């Protein structure tokens, strides 16, 4: 705590707010699992991944590094892949349903 560059008060505030927001995140994730699905909860978590480094840059004046940039790109890529796969699966299921409806007539 003494070696923290921004001081002991800032260190304690960081720890307290991290604990508060982790609790809120956990409650929200469990709520999403119960109300929707675990897959949707996971996708919402992935959307939040690039938000944290961006918020750290703006609010804490943190430096943008290559690792943060790569992690944000990968998180966005993962979410876009999830949405695209959902779109493809939905499109395929509509085609199959239409084919089944036509054969059952």
From TrEMBL:
Q: Which keywords does UniProt give here?
A: Membrane, Transmembrane, Transmembrane helix, Transport
**Sample GO molecular function, one term:** purine nucleoside transmembrane transporter activity
Localization annotation = Membrane
Q: Does the keyword Hydrolase apply?
A: no
Q: Which domain of life is it from?
A: Eukaryota
Its primary localisation, in coarse terms, equals: membrane
One term under GO cellular component? membrane
UniProt keyword Protein biosynthesis, yes or no: no
The entry's family comment says: Belongs to the purine permeases (TC 2.A.7.14) family.
The molecule here is called Purine permease
Organism name = Linum tenue
């Amino acid at each position: 705590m003494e070696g923290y560059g921004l001081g002991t008060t800032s260190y304690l505030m960081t720890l307290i707010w991290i604990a508060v927001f982790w609790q809120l995140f956990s409650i929200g994730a469990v709520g999403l699992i119960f109300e929707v699905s675990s897959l949707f909860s996971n996708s919402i978590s992935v959307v939040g991944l690039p938000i944290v480094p961006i918020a750290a840059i703006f609010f804490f004046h943190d430096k943008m590094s290559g690792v943060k940039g790569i992690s944000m790109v990968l998180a966005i890529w993962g979410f876009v892949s999830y949405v695209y796969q959902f779109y493809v699966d939905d499109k395929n299921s509509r085609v199959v349903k239409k084919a089944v409806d036509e054969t059952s007539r």
